Amino acid sequence: FSNPEVSRSLPPESIGVVLNELARRGNLEWTDKSKTRGQVLWLSAGEWADKVYKWAQATSKVNTVCTLYELTQGDESTDQEFYGLSDDVMVKALRH
Q: Whole-structure pTM over 0.85, yes or no?
């Protein structure tokens, strides 16, 4: 939230507004109770869940057990946006 090349930075209050909005949209999950650390998500857990479910429907995998590895690293998912997704984010999506 700062750019030393142009001597500009966002005040802490404004940073809080941005981060709270990301959290409200589901694109940031706080990792501590004091809300000083968090994980930024490209897509919300719900959006990832939708993509996985659509893939499962298209590949006849609904009600089939798949491992995290199969979902994020498997040969059948190489063309999916969630290919290579971290296990942490995939688990959040699957729990959604």
A: no
